[in-house]
């Protein structure tokens, strides 16, 4: 066994690998960029080496610099994690040439499965069923369009070297094909350095089920059962679970054996995932093989009781698999929810900023608890525009699926994140949605259930409003006379409860919640407070204990978690966060609301990669104006109305900040 391991990655997977390596007595080396100097994975390792600038191509994609860091620190092995160089055959070969163990499959296996087109040809020869499509080398746009036209729409364009939903588009008609193809090729080239694509028939209401495989250097190969990863947005997984709901033992065996056959066909070694698309009638087709550990590997660990990173390190050191296929079994059910810094209400666009508050439920770090959090950031860290915006993975275990869902909902309700938009409320709605609960799963579930998952704004309750008021008053040091449960305070002058010798006192508080404004009148008469608002009136008292606020309205008590950041009050209730701003209306910039009328602004920080219009051009509503790239994804800026472009503020290649005015558009008369 090697004694020093370099982790060529960042974030939660780097922290995860470091924890297992430490438990195995292996010294760890972290690498970091300019943007990651204070990142959690840096402090999680024994040694840290700076490798370059914040852009991945300046640091985490620099295989030569990473190998040099391994040599300088005496690392005998490199674990690539997932993403970046994890499936890069050139990097794996460079490690071999340098005499460093690459914790992953042989170069030949990566090469064979690294191209989706070549992999499908191999699987076809091995008798594994494939989705109808074109997987060849002819990349002429007219030829590819012809193939799609013959196949019939909808079709799926996919980056051959890709993964994670990047370089992937669903095309519904022949007229949309060329533009979607060019976008896929740009995104694939930017993410993987290869713009080759394949085209497949897009299946209606399919499920995405993958099989975890493992092989050692002696040729033994096993599968550790399946994961259902059907719930996706932007072709990226959102919630994963194991085992797959409704999976019969016969189908599990058939898919497992097909996955093992796929691994053996390329002389695979280490951890890998064979992904299948499954139709409603149970027919399954090979999609691709990921020659690395997957983001969702914890759900497999929880149901099998196995540490897959430990398996990886042992196999890389030449040890045999610890268990045979007959010895492997699973129990219970596990769910994983990916918590992202993104705004689900704005097409899941990434969000950047400082995590002013980040609290998790009580959890463990490995597979011996009901709740597990795999994270790579902590309170006070900044989500940057350079990397994937995942904050952490929240994983739960239950004796069955119903219990796992209940535990996931409870765990989500205990997460508090302030400073960036997150998908926590969305995840709570998703996991509690009737389609998810009944296991009516498919890759289009989020779009199919859009009306339930993206409800219109609901009016807040008096309880929520009163909690926000109580948090504000407590922050100002004002108590209701019985906070902290102390009803017999011996010094009445020490109680900050606004008591007046002359009698009652009135106070008006204005809270803004989104587009809504609430005026709350508080009246203190004697020792009793009265709260009045448009939502109702009640006798009011409150108690504050660290993060929790308990309010009493007449005879009803209500408790919720709160946080105060700058002028904003955050109230967390059952997975939903309500945000109230205490600034007066004039400070919101209302008087300047017309200052940028007609301007189109950047929805996030990113780079301008194409501009489709010039100053003076007449454009129609919905027409594409420019394309931005942020966090490895392309985002199209379209005209919200017909008009004339009067000014362009940036050029192709420019980096822009969130909210930057991009184009001035004068509406048509």
Describe this structure in words.
With 669 residues, this protein is α+β, with helices and mostly antiparallel strands. The chain folds into 5 domains: 4-103, Rossmann fold, CATH 3.40.50.20; 132-201, ATP-grasp fold, A domain (Dna Ligase, domain 1), CATH 3.30.1490; 207-453, ATP-grasp fold, B domain (D-amino Acid Aminotransferase, Chain A, domain 1, 2-Layer Sandwich), CATH 3.30.470; 462-488 and 495-587, Glycoprotein, Type 4 Pilin (2-Layer Sandwich), CATH 3.30.700; 594-667, Beta Barrel (OB fold (Dihydrolipoamide Acetyltransferase, E2P)), CATH 2.40.50.100. Helices cover 25% and strands 33% of the residues. The chain is built from 17 helices and 39 strands. The strands form 9 sheets. The chain has an 8-stranded antiparallel beta sheet with strand order 14-13-10-11-12-15-22-20, with helices on both faces. An 8-stranded antiparallel beta sheet has the order 24-25-26-27-28-29-30-31. It has a 5-stranded parallel beta sheet with strand order 3-2-1-4-5. Helix 7 (141-151) packs across helix 8 (174-192). The chain is globular and about 85 Å long. It starts with a strand and ends with a strand. Residues 482-495 and 583-597 have low confidence and may be disordered.
Rounded to the nearest angstrom, the radius of gyration is 27 Å
* Count of separate structural domains: 5
Q: The CATH topology of the largest domain, please?
A: D-amino Acid Aminotransferase, Chain A, domain 1
Largest sheet: 8 strands, antiparallel
Q: Write out the CATH superfamily name of the largest domain.
A: ATP-grasp fold, B domain
Name of the level-1 CATH class of the largest domain: Alpha Beta
**Into which percent range does the helicity of residues fall?**
25-40%
What is the second-level CATH architecture of the largest domain?
Answer: 2-Layer Sandwich
The main sheet orders its strands as 14-13-10-11-12-15-22-20
Mean pLDDT: 89
How many beta strands in the DSSP annotation? 39
Give the overall form.
Answer: globular
- Assembly classification: single chain
Strand content: 25-35%
The termini sit apart by 74 Å
Class by helix and strand content?
Answer: alpha+beta
Count helical runs.
17
Could you list the spans in which at least 5 consecutive residues all have pLDDT below 50? 482-495, 583-597
């Amino acid at each position: 066994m090697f004694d020093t391991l370099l982790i060529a990655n960042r974030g939660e997977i780097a922290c995860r690998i470091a924890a297992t390596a430490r438990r195995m007595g292996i010294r760890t080396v972290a690498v970091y960029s300019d943007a990651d100097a204070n990142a959690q994975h840096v402090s999680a390792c024994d040694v840290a080496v700076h490798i370059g600038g914040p852009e991945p191509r300046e640091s985490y994609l620099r295989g030569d610099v990473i190998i040099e860091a391994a040599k300088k620190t005496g690392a005998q092995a490199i674990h690539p994690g997932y993403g970046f160089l994890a499936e890069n055959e050139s990097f794996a070969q460079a490690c071999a040439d340098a005499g460093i163990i690459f914790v992953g499959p042989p170069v030949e296996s990566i090469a064979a499965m690294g191209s989706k087109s070549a992999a499908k040809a191999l699987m076809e020869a091995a008798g594994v069923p494939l989705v109808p499509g074109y997987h060849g080398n002819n990349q002429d746009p007219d030829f590819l369009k012809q193939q799609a036209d013959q196949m019939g729409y909808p079709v799926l364009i996919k980056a051959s070297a890709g993964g994670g939903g990047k370089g992937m588009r669903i095309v519904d008609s022949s007229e949309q094909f060329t533009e979607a193809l060019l976008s896929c090729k740009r995104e694939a080239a930017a993410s993987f350095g290869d713009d080759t694509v394949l085209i497949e028939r897009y299946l209606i209401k399919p499920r995405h089920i993958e099989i975890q495989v493992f092989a050692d250097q002696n040729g033994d190969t096993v599968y550790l059962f399946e994961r259902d990863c059907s719930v996706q947005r932007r072709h990226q997984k959102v919630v994963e679970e194991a085992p797959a709901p409704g999976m019969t033992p016969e189908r599990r065996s058939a898919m497992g054996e097909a996955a093992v056959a796929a691994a053996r066909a390329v002389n695979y070694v280490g951890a890998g995932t064979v992904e299948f698309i499954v139709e409603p009638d149970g027919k399954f087709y090979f999609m691709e093989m990921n020659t690395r550990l997957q983001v969702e590997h914890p759900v497999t660990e929880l149901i099998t009781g196995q540490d897959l990173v430990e398996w990886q390190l042992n196999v890389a050191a030449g040890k045999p698999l610890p268990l045979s296929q007959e010895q492997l079994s699973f129990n219970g059910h596990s769910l994983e929810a990916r918590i992202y810094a993104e705004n689900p209400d704005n097409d899941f666009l990434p969000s950047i900023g400082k995590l002013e508050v980040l609290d998790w439920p009580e959890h463990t770090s490995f597979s011996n608890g009901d709740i597990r959090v795999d994270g790579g950031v902590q309170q006070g860290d900044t989500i940057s525009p350079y990397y994937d915006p995942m904050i952490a993975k929240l994983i739960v275990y239950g004796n069955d699926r119903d219990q796992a869902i209940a535990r996931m909902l409870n765990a989500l309700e205990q997460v508090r994140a302030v400073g960036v938009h997150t998908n926590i409320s969305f995840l709570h709605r998703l996991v509690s949605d009737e389609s998810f609960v009944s296991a009516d799963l498919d890759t289009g579930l989020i779009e199919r259930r859009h009306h339930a998952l993206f409800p219109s704004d609901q009016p807040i309750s008096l309880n929520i409003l009163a909690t926000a008021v109580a948090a504000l008053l407590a922050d100002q040091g004002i108590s209701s006379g019985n906070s902290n449960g102390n009803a017999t305070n011996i010094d009445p002058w020490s109680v900050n409860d606004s008591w007046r010798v002359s009698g009652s006192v009135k106070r008006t508080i204005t809270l803004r919640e989104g587009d809504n404004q609430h005026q709350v009148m508080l009246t203190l008469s004697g020792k009793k407070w009265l709260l009045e608002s448009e939502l109702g009136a009640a006798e009011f008292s409150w108690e504050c204990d660290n993060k929790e606020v308990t309010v009493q309205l007449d005879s009803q008590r209500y408790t919720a978690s709160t946080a105060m950041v700058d002028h904003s009050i955050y109230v967390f209730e059952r997975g939903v966060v309500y945000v109230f701003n205490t600034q007066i209306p004039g400070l919101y910039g209302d008087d300047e609301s017309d200052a940028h009328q007609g301007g189109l602004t950047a929805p996030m920080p990113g780079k301008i990669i194409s501009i489709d219009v010039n100053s003076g051009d007449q454009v129609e509503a919905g027409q594409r104006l420019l394309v931005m790239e942020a966090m490895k994804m392309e985002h199209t800026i379209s005209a919200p109305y017909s008009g004339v472009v009067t000014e362009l503020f940036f050029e192709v290649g420019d980096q822009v900040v969130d909210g930057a005015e991009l184009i001035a558009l004068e509406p048509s008369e």
